[in-house]
């Protein structure tokens, strides 16, 4: 199946995620590493049924915030919850939240199919989900290949396939279009937009602002560990600019430094 065919299939497939999406609520998160305040009293929300963009310069605190959200880093204070429940306390974590924060988890000597089968077993997910996510993410022709030979774009698809094994209702993604070709970016855009329109929750961090702007319903801007702007797509439009202009107004640390 080509990306164009998957694109049409996604447009036709309007089944809601299982279960319905839940709101992400981040309240007063803070984290210090020695003398560095990586995250400072970060508060924002990402509602169900929407794509929320999380943007900021390198080192602004995005990755640390996402890692605290997913229970990978313990905050000094504050909370992060999915539908009122911290990630660590979710009854079915990988069946509720699918996350892609980096591409380092896949062992290079394994095949894509072997990797997905292993993660499906570890997560207690149905074996047939492996074939489903392989097809959905365009890995069919590569499923039997060793991961060591994958391009960055194919690793990105594999990471997303892994996140989708539990059929989650929430996606937390850090730079998911990195390494994808134009057809892959179109597929990703269509998938994420359809996922949210069907009731799912999407929180996405990306530096590809022109692409992000095409799918977001809301934007959260972080700079030097602090939230400096939040608003809806309509509020962004009312400012008379675009997401790139907003970024350079509020999160241009790496440019002005």
List keywords for this structure.
single chain, 257 residues, alpha/beta, Rossmann fold, six-stranded mixed β-sheet, three-stranded antiparallel β-sheet, 9 strands, globular
Characterization of this structure:
The chain is of the alpha/beta class and 257 residues long. It has a single domain, classed as 3-Layer(aba) Sandwich (Rossmann fold), CATH 3.40.50.300. 37% of the residues lie in helices and 23% in strands. The chain has 11 helices and 9 strands. A 6-stranded mixed sheet has the order 5-6-7-3-8-9, sandwiched between helices. A 3-stranded antiparallel sheet has the order 2-1-4, covered by helices on one side. Helix 7 (182-197) links the parallel strand 6 (170-174) and strand 7 (201-205). The protein is globular and about 45 Å long. Residues 10-17 have low confidence and may be disordered.
Task: Break the fold down into its secondary structure elements and pairings.
Blueprint: H1 3-12, E1 24-33, E2 36-46, E3 50-55, H2 62-69, E4 77-82, H3 93-96, E5 97-100, H4 112-123, H5 128-136, H6 152-163, E6 170-174, H7 182-197, E7 201-205, H8 209-213, E8 218-223, E9 226-232, H9 233-238, H10 243-250, H11 253-256
Parallel strand pairs: 3-7, 3-8, 5-6, 6-7
Antiparallel strand pairs: 1-2, 1-4, 8-9
Instruction: Supply the number of helical segments.
Output: 11
Largest sheet: 6 strands, mixed
Total domain count: 1
Question: Whole-Å distance between the termini?
Answer: 47 Å
User: Can you identify the CATH class?
Assistant: Alpha Beta
Computed Rg: 18 Å
Instruction: Name the poorly predicted regions.
Output: 10-17
Query: Residue-averaged pLDDT, rounded?
Result: 87
Helix content: 25-40%
Q: CATH superfamily assignment? A: P-loop containing nucleotide triphosphate hydrolases
Class per helix and strand makeup: alpha/beta
User: Any idea what the CATH architecture is?
Assistant: 3-Layer(aba) Sandwich
The SSE string, one letter per element, is HEEEHEHEHHHEHEHEEHHH
CATH topology: Rossmann fold
């Amino acid at each position: 199946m080509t990306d164009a065919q998957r694109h049409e299939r996604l447009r036709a497939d309007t089944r809601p995620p299982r279960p319905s999406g839940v709101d992400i609520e981040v309240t007063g998160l803070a984290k210090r590493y020695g003398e560095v305040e990586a995250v400072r009293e970060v508060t924002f929300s990402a509602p169900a049924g929407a794509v929320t963009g999380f943007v900021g310069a390198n080192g602004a605190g995005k990755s640390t915030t996402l890692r605290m959200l997913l229970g990978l880093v313990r905050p000094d204070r504050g909370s992060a919850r999915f539908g009122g429940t911290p990630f660590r306390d979710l009854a079915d974590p990988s069946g509720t939240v699918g996350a892609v924060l980096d591409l380092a988890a896949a062992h290079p000597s394994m095949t894509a199919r072997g990797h997905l089968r292993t993660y499906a077993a570890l997560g207690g997910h149905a074996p047939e989900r492996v074939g489903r996510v392989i097809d959905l993410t365009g890995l069919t022709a590569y499923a039997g290949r060793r991961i060591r030979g994958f391009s960055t774009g194919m690793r990105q698809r594999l990471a997303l396939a892994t996140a989708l094994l539990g059929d989650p209702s929430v996606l937390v993604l850090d730079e998911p279009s990195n390494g994808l070709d134009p057809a892959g970016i179109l597929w990703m855009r269509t998938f994420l937009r359809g996922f949210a329109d069907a009731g799912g929750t999407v929180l996405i961090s990306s530096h590809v602002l022109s692409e992000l702007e095409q799918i977001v319903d809301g934007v959260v801007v972080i700079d030097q560990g602090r939230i400096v702007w939040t608003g809806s797509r309509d509020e962004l439009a009312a400012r008379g600019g675009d997401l790139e202009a907003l970024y350079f107004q509020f999160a241009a640390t790496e440019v002005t430094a």
